[in-house]
Amino acid sequence: MSHVKAGGTAKNIHDSPGQRLGVKLFGGQKVKTGQVIVRQVGMTKRAGKGTMLSRNFTIHATRDGVVKFTRRKVKTFSGRSVPRTEVTVE
């Protein structure tokens, strides 16, 4: 028989790497077609003209140009208007 008492289980041992989210190209910077502008979880920023939203909510440029961020009001499901950031390429 063992002479050592049972040890508890560790709960805080798992660690995952960061997802590298955030704005990759800021307002006023040049962008080429297909480049990633914003990596995000959910639609915190909206895709405007010259951009597209991929399946994982990443915003890509659909044409060459300059990145521009603007604030605009968006209606929610309940009908309330809330300000959101819109990303466009001009």
How would you characterize the overall build of this protein?
The protein has 90 residues and is mainly beta. The chain has a single domain, classed as RNA polymerase II/Efflux pump adaptor protein, barrel-sandwich hybrid domain (OB fold (Dihydrolipoamide Acetyltransferase, E2P)). The chain has strands spanning 22-23, 30-31, 36-39, 45-47, 51-53, 59-61, 65-75, 81-89. Strands 1-3-6-5 form a four-stranded antiparallel beta sheet, with no helix packed on it. Strand 7 (65-75) and strand 8 form a beta hairpin.
**Class by helix and strand content?**
mainly beta
Shape: elongated
Q: What's the helical proportion of residues?
A: under 10%
The total tally of domains equals: 1
Assign the CATH superfamily: RNA polymerase II/Efflux pump adaptor protein, barrel-sandwich hybrid domain
Which terms summarize this structure?
single chain, 90 residues, mainly beta, OB fold (Dihydrolipoamide Acetyltransferase, E2P), 4-stranded antiparallel β-sheet, 4-stranded mixed β-sheet, 0% helix
Question: What is the element layout, followed by pairings?
Answer:
Elements: E1 22-23, E2 30-31, E3 36-39, E4 45-47, E5 51-53, E6 59-61, E7 65-75, E8 81-89
Parallel strand pairs: 4-8
Antiparallel strand pairs: 1-3, 2-7, 3-6, 5-6, 7-8
Could you give a quick summary of the protein structure above?
The protein is mainly β and 90 residues long.
